[in-house]
Each structure stands twice: as structure tokens, then as C-alpha cells.
Specification:
6 helices, 77% helix, mainly alpha
Length: 153
Amino acid sequence: MPWALAPALAAFAVLAVALAVIDVRTHRLPDAILLPGAGVVLGLLGAAAAVTGQPGRVVAVGGGAAAAFVICLVVHLARPAAFGGGDVKLAGLCGAVLGWVGPEAVASGITLGFFAGGAAAAGVVLAGARGAPLAFGPFLLLGTWGRLVAGPW
């Protein structure tokens, strides 16, 4: 991991914690926090690409964001009550961060989030609380951070 990426990851970490807490408490990912936070993270990713002399990373970040956004938009359109619009926007941001690492990271990080969310949903059903609301944002973030920490870079 290049040191120039540290500010972007730090900003993403702060945003991730705030959004996870809010989503668990309210089952909402407010645009007033998500969109400006995403702007900061994206700006810092762009700056990291410039500082490291890797302008192609901007394309990778944009491609990761677009891929994750579109895939999750399809899920949202299929099941809007189960996967909200905030989750779609958050997936785009997660895809952007994972895009720095590469397309495989985008695919595996988002997939890991879906597996974690599915496991939690199965646990809710097994506990007899079928139909209980389950915030999905924290699982997208868990999958993203799990993939980032697992490497390789």
C-alpha cells in the first residue's frame, strides 16, 4: 500500500464507522453524510493517484465504483424493500476504494459483504426473528475492509 493512500483510507475508515453506526440505529444511510464523505474519499484517492504518478488508478477507481453501483442497483430494483438506495450509493463508494486494488478486489469485497449479510440474515431467521430489519451497510463495509486488509496490494 502506498503511503499516499493513507489519507483516503483514514477518511474512509471514519466515514465507515459513522455510517455503520447510523445504519444499525436508523436503517438509513443519510445522503447528508454519505455524499460529502464520498466526495472527500474520492478526492483523496485522486490525489493519491497523482502523488504516486499512477493516473490510471483514477480509471480503476471509477470503474470499481461504477461496477459495484450498477450491480447493487440491480439488486435494489429487484428487492427495494430489502436493499435500499443508500446501500447502492455506499456500494459505489466501496467499489471505488476497492477499485484502487483492482477488479478482483471489487468483485471479492462486494461478494464478501453479501455473504456476511446473508449469514446474518440466516442467523436472524434461525433465531426466530424472521422479518426483523437488518441494516446491510455494515456488511458492505465489512466486506470492503475484509478485502482491503486481506491484501495483496
